[in-house]
Design a protein that fits this description.
The complex is a heterodimer of chains A (330) and B (300). With 330 residues, chain A is of the alpha/beta class. Helices cover 30% and strands 23% of the residues of chain A. Chain A is built from 10 helices and 12 strands. In chain A, the strands form 2 sheets. Chain A has an 8-stranded mixed β-sheet with strand order 6-7-8-3-9-10-12-11, sandwiched between helices. A 4-stranded antiparallel β-sheet of chain A has the order 2-1-4-5, with helices on one face. The radius of gyration of chain A is 20 Å and the shape is globular. The two termini of chain A are 38 Å apart. The chains are: A alpha/beta (330), B mainly alpha (300).
Chain lengths: 330, 300
Amino acid sequence: MVMGTDAILRIADLRTHFFTDNGEVKAVDGVNLTIHKGESLGLVGESGCGKTVTAYSTLRLVPNPPGRIISGQIHFKGRDLLKLSEKEMRGVRGKEIAMVFQEPASSLNPSFTIGNQIREVIQFHQGGSRVEARKKAIEILDAVRIPDPMRIVDQYPHELSGGMLQRVMIAIAISCKPDLLICDEPTTALDVSMQAQVINLLNDLRQERGTSLLFITHDLGVLSWVCTHAAVMYAGNIIEQADIRTLVKNPKHPYTSALIGASPRLDRDCQVLDSIRGSVPNLINPPRGCKFHPRCDRVLPICTEQTPQLKEKGDGHRVACFVDGEGGAA
Amino acid sequence: MIHGYGTIPGHQESEGQSHEQGGALREFYRRFKKQRLGVTGAIIVVILFLAAVFAPFLAPCDPQRVDLSNTLAPLSLKHPLGTDHLGRDLLSRVIYGTRIVLIVGIGSVAISAFFGGLAGLCAGYFGKTADGMIMRCLDVVWAFPPILLALALLAVRGASLSTVVLSITLVGIPGHARIVRGSVLSIKEKTYIMAARASGIGHRRILINHILPNIVAPVIVVSTLSIAICIMIEATLSFLGLGMRPPNDSWGFMVSEGQKYLRTYPYYSLFPGIMIMVVVFAFNVFGDGLRDAWDPKLKT
């Protein structure tokens, strides 16, 4: 596959904070992210590090209150999404950027048939009659390899299994041929064989349709299977970004190394998996300097003082860490 | 199992609609048919409707014809339920009474479900200030005991059918609003609402297409239950002599009149009383049946 070089999505210095009774939660705190056409970018990190909030911010779906996008830019095909009106944004959602959610069982409205829900999105964005939209719905169900789409189209969500529902969700998401597909842990709620089917489906769709992918996960195994590039998130920041091979083989940030060390592998015989000591910092009062320094094994004096910036290490590999010498003392 | 769809009255209308909608109605009917108690309730409700509509043909006598030579007559073929203290035929009065019961019960519940539902929908979905303002206003109504509120309105406007309906409607609005608001609050947090928004669908469409169908079930249950309650309130008001004026044949009013003759002639209060009970029961089981048939998750 030929990789395009033009950026389809460029997030610059995005800050999304949640204003709670206990204080301001800095869930996303200066995220920079670029996805090129046809690229599949994985966003990895522990629970609560801001992956999902980044995705919601991209679609401007952050629940308000309590959440609000404080600052930043989200350039999508040359437009800043944060500057669009709500009405223009509605034209982007589903048509140009679509999203697949974690829990397929609760992502579909229990009161409507599968066909109704696909048809609604098709008719909303493309118009056309009910009959036409229904025909398109059956085609799209067939495209996501649902067996017997003529029957499934008239069934209710509770009549299908989790894996089938996730394929239906993908069908809805790709029904209007979006340029970018955001998948928020689409395989987490599925068993392993279903995971494999969904991932293969996503890979094929990406290659057939050239859709770019933002794939959120905490599973490095799934990540390396789907993604061409990966960005590691920690406490609201991107701390390392590289193509998937470099990231797994040669991680530069201590957190990335620890994350890789903590994931089970078939090719390595070990009884006990490494774990990262401590837990994700409180995002209301994050630690000074590098937010990872309280949990880091290689902490330097400068880490507690200054915040490292993402610095290019060559070949698109970018790291925000002082440990590797020059680090990026900003 | 063979479904005799062709024989369902009113089914022809749904046939003309799209495939799915016809299918959903058919499905709904199939599921409802299995609820024995619900079907019983539905049959009673239909009979009551027919009785109300065809009262002039069904009633053996004119309910207002006074026959002072034949007061408090025992049950006979001419007067199956006897006569009252003015010699009026009780069966005829009970049959005509269905009209009032249905107008008051269904009318006031329909109006309060509509306005209460609208208020609850807005309060629940938009939250924040809208929620606070709408719910506080309704709390004012909620704060009065229902009978007291109805009494106050009747005192101001004078007793008439429309005032009775109005006062019972007003009493019912906060309850409906609360049920709808609660359901909306839980549904709007569901992932499928977020998924709908992520597909670009706007607020109005989400409210109408995604939230409304999911709150229909609780609203139907509450409505049918409140039809029963409204009928009770109407009966209570009439019993207290504050509802409909005498020429009207409200069952509650008849129970109240019959009270004076309870020891010597119990039929006067007994039959209207039994009718109130039957109607309340029918609407309750009908509502339960509808709810069970509506919920696709209970489908077999």
